[in-house]
Amino acid sequence: MNNERREFIRYQIKPHTIFLYSNYSPVNGWVKDISNGGIAFEYIPIDGCEPKPEIRLILTGDTFPFYLPDIPCKTIYDIKVNKNGRPFKGTGTQRCGVQYEKLDPEIQEKLSDLLRNEAIRSGI
Length: 124
What we know:
The protein is mainly beta. It has 1 helix and 8 strands; from the N terminus they run βββββββαβ.
């Protein structure tokens, strides 16, 4: 039996729904999953650049505009993945997992609204 260590339920995101910017860095990419505790996203690495500890989320699509600026977080992992999302040692896409740090109440409320209303497609 595999014990789940995560404190929060992660939710898969429909592809090309939430775009992420890494503040103070040219790194950006599409969110793969999200929770009340953090997110995982994929990006194409740029020489010498890596995600910085603040991110912005932008919801794309016709449903409604969504913007969450300046989410403080820390990187939990940053690995290379192949086109199937599996770790490997070659060059290609990176997958980064970040954990939110202390969120102010307004950002926490917006994040909760996002999880309740728009981005959720299925739980993992």
